[in-house]
Amino acid sequence: MKQRTQPEPVTSALLRDWLPEHEERGTVLVVGGSRRVPGAVLLSGIAALRTGAGTLQMATAERHAGGLGLAVPEALVVGLPEASSGAVSRDAADVLADFVPKAQSLVIGPGLTDVDETAALLERLLPMVAPDSPVVLDAFALGALGTHPSLGDPVRGRMVLTPNDVEAGYLLDAEVDDHVSAAREIAAKHDAVVNLMGVVAAPDGRLWQDSTGHIGLSTSGSGDVLAGLVGGLLARSPDLALAACWAGHVHAMAGQRLVPRTGLTGMLARELLDEVPQVLVELRTR
User: From the CB of residue 153, how many other CB atoms can be counted at a distance below 10 Å?
Assistant: First the structure.
């Protein structure tokens, strides 16, 4: 397929014309969290529910599992063993062996720490993923993939990567000068759909760009919300590019709705979550 030299703009009209023909509401499994970053899994998990996941499962450091279950009573929560650093241990793969093969989509990375433990965990987890299930990688999972690109081999062609500029640099092993070219290169290198700062690139050369976002979306935890939105949409439709474009636009529009109340610099990532259902309604009906 010939590559586009310029991305196609993502608009509400485009997304309405690009609805999946058949939608299910499958199970999303979010794997992440650590002793120091317990809330990231919550943000991603609720985001997945807000975009229509039928069942939510969250796996995080054992010490936080009970509190997470109370905070999100809609979810099944699995406690995972910790390394001495407080990161989720590579041995968590043994606990997750009953859950990973049954998930319709997986989000791995929000709140994970320690790139070596994460890499070892991915090495064991990704071969367990069902053959038709997509995987969203975020945060330290992207750092691990950048250091060890072969980790993605078991799910090549079924990954969505949601890096920020720093994580994109790890994936490219180079500084990011231009989001369009960087997203295209990452997509081709890792055979994945990439959502990088509003640019969505598919490995076949297709490109889209969403200009709806603003500086407020750089707030802490916002990327965890985006990853969860993608995971929730993938539990309804397996189209990676569709999920990445829809999630990016919903994320940005949720931020736009908050601006009158919070300004550009006062919004919190958790506030985005309550805006998501109304954004979805508006996108589908206007």
Answer: 11
Number of structural domains, the chain?
1
Angle between helices 269-285 and 240-262 (to 10 degrees): 120
Q: Which residue has the tokens 């969250």?
A: 58
User: What are the 10-residue block averages of pLDDT along the chain, 286 residues in total?
Assistant: 72 82 83 95 98 95 96 97 96 97 97 96 98 97 96 98 95 92 96 97 96 88 97 93 95 94 92 95 81
Are 268 and 246 within 8 A, CB to CB? Answer: no
CB 89 within 8 A of CB 119: no
* C-alpha 236, offset from chain centre: 15
- Which residue, 106, 154, 93, 160, is CA-closest to 133? 106
Predicted local confidence at residue 18, as pLDDT: 77
Whether 1 maps to a domain, the answer reads no
* Binding positions for (6S)-NADPHX: 40, 111, 224
Which pLDDT score, from 0 to 100, does residue 24 have? 79
CB 138 within 8 A of CB 170: no
- Please report how many Cα atoms fall inside a 13 Å half-sphere around the Cα of residue 143, on the Cβ side: 14
How far CA 89 is from CA of 58, 101, 123, 124, in Å, comes to: 16, 19, 12, 12
- The three-class DSSP label of residue 265 is coil
Residue 28, helix vs strand vs coil? strand
214 vs 196: CA distance, rounded Å: 14
Residues belonging to the binding site are 40, 111, 223-224
For the domain that residue 80 is a member of, what is the CATH number?
A: 3.40.1190.20
Range of the domain at 221: 22-285
Annotated binding site for AMP: 223
Q: Give the residue from 261, 271, 283, 202 showing the smallest Cα distance to 43.
A: 271
